[in-house]
Design goal:
about 425 residues, alpha/beta, Metallo-beta-lactamase, Chain A, 2 domains, 7-stranded mixed beta sheet, 10 helices, globular
Length: about 425
Amino acid sequence: MRDIRSKCVSLFSVTKNVKPSATLDRSNTRTRWTRRLRYAGAVLLAVALLGGAAVASAGDAFGARATGNRQRLIESSPQWNGERFANPLPREQASFVTMLRRWVGSAPNTVPTDPLPVVTRTAADFANAPASGLRVTWLGHSTLLLEIGGRRILVDPVWGDRVSPVGWAGPMRFHPPPLPLDELPTIDAVVISHDHYDHLDHPTIVALRERVPRFIVPLGVGAHLEQWGVDAERIVELDWWQATALGDLTLTATPARHFSGRAITRSDEDATLWAGWVIADATHRVYYSGDTALFPELAEIGTRLGPFDLSLIETGAYDAMWADVHLGPEQVILAHQLVRGGLLVPVHWGTFNLALHAWTEPVERLLVAADSAQVRVVVPRPGESVEPATAPTLARWWPTVPWQRADEAPVRSSGVDALWQAR
């Protein structure tokens, strides 16, 4: 009671009427808050200075805003709310102060301590088509080389050392690219899920702009590509549920629950669309989630475009603070089931530190959830190829480090209770 009374007195009474202990409490409280404000101010100042330096040195890395006919096409989209693209479900997230407190604290085991077992590849490895007609090679994070229907599709290509607008700051790679860019085989199309730096890499696009005949992207992303020298005739921009043909392949942009933007000031937030993708021929179907939280339309994707031989679903970089933009491992399993996936290969993990969880935690938790749900999972090493028809048995290649279980650090998107109840 004395502590409660002293706090109340320190808030509502003048000093001359306060007991010495309450005065001391008030003084300590002021000191703590003064320190916090100074610390926060120092952090914000550092962020501002780094941001200014980044803007000065980023050059074209920020990309460009849509204008003219491209912007008119954007404004005709059902996903455009008059000011920006929006998810059907609202996005809830922690306050800036809460996130700042978490980020400035220590988070153990977020990066590997030893080199990873990368499978180094060359163009010769891809000279022969997959025997089954479908093969995926995980090149780290969300970068995928998909061979399907006699075509090669490069998904979210990122060869840069950092996922950042500048080369001197931002999350660094855990491992080198398994397939050097100069060893890349002939590519029929590049597919982009959204414009965040860990999916749309400026130097990689510049390196590919003369080598790839087709860039297939969500609405608005083409403005970045044109800014970086990709011919407009090579760019196909799609809204959710729209499709384009590539020979015998059909590529369909599917809904996702995420956001977009490349500017440090967030001035371009949600100015371009984000999407997942379905890539299919007459024999095989593949689902790639892009970045997403859980959302009801996953079931519609499965009904309209599934079932899928292979689902490639983002698994890492999650946190309860941003559960409305990333799935988390347990929701990956539910998403896989909703789209009617066959073999599950986790992506968006094991290459960059983009969250506060242990770097191996995404697959550790995924395997626990998959075992409970009897979902078949393969976790390839960086550079390893997988054919769903002859998928190898699961092999643990990552080290054992401490990680948090689902009950210790739950991640659940908002507005999806009905999906869990219907399991």
